Automatic annotation (TrEMBL):
Residues 4-122 form the Response regulatory domain. InterPro entries: CheY-like_superfamily, NreC/VraR/RcsB-like_REC, Sig_transdc_resp-reg_C-effctor, Sig_transdc_resp-reg_receiver, Tscrpt_reg_LuxR_C, WalR-like. CDD domains: LuxR_C_like, REC_NarL-like. The lineage of its organism: Bacteria, Bacillati, Actinomycetota, Actinomycetes, Kitasatosporales. Residues 148-213 form the HTH luxR-type domain. The keyword Cell membrane does not apply. Pfam families: GerE, Response_reg. This is Response regulator transcription factor. Keywords: DNA-binding, Phosphoprotein, Transcription, Transcription regulation. It comes from Streptomyces hirsutus.
Length: 220
């Protein structure tokens, strides 16, 4: 299956460099480019993109609002958003996750890591790794904003354990190892949790886990 990628960044050289890189992957193709957030939303639909690589800081409409538009559009329900950030200097990353982004990566990431990130997010996984990334998310979630529509109180004890590990950045295989489960059972638990919490993907599970207090800010 070929991953159809839309690139949104206000810097032409950055977009072109990303486009050249993406086109080197046999399982990806660039279906469009956008210089502003507003330009990104419509092509995501008309060009049937599977994933948008979205810069946060753009003119006209920033990447956060563009992500929110994509997440709210019924015709774009399957489109994933991978947000670009300057990491420790960009405090908008959690807003992007709340808006519906499935993950983020730093702009100075290595080429192979960008391609892996696209594959990860396109496959439905959240690009949220443990360590510094988890601490970054936790730091900006210390003051929750907006109501949580559903929380861990609707989950079983085992599902709460799984959710806590998802929030710390573990994938299904790592969750299985940590809890003594099979990878298939871990995957089933994650799917059921997403259904109960009406979450788009694992990134949304991370938000619920932190905002509900299931995972304490600063923990790993």
């Amino acid at each position: 299956m070929t991953i159809r990628v839309l690139l949104a960044d206000d810097q032409t050289l950055v977009r072109e460099a990303f486009a050249m890189l993406v086109e080197t992957a046999s399982d990806m193709e660039v279906v469009g480019q956008a210089a502003t957030g507003r330009e990104a939303a419509e092509p995501a639909r008309t060009r049937r993109a599977d994933l948008v690589v979205m810069d946060i800081r753009m003119p006209d409409l920033d990447g956060i609002e563009a992500t929110r538009l994509i997440a709210a559009h019924e015709d774009l329900a399957g489109v994933k958003v991978l947000v670009l950030t300057t990491y420790d200097t960009d405090e908008n990353i959690v807003d992007a996750l709340r808006a519906g982004a499935s993950g983020f990566l730093v702009k100075d990431t290595r080429p192979a890591e960008l391609l892996d990130a696209i594959r990860t997010v396109a496959a439905g996984e959240a690009l949220l790794s443990p360590g510094p990334t988890a601490r970054l998310i936790a730091r900006f979630l210390r003051t929750p904003r907006g109501p949580v529509t559903a929380g861990p109180e609707c989950l079983s004890d085992r599902e709460r354990e799984v959710l806590a590990l998802v929030a710390r950045g573990l994938n299904n295989t790592e969750i299985a190892e940590a809890l003594g489960l099979s990878p298939l059972t871990a995957k089933t638990h994650v799917s059921r949790i997403m259904g109960k919490l009406a979450a788009r993907d694992r990134a949304q599970l991370v938000i619920v886990a932190y905002e509900s207090g299931l995972v304490a800010p600063g923990t790993q």
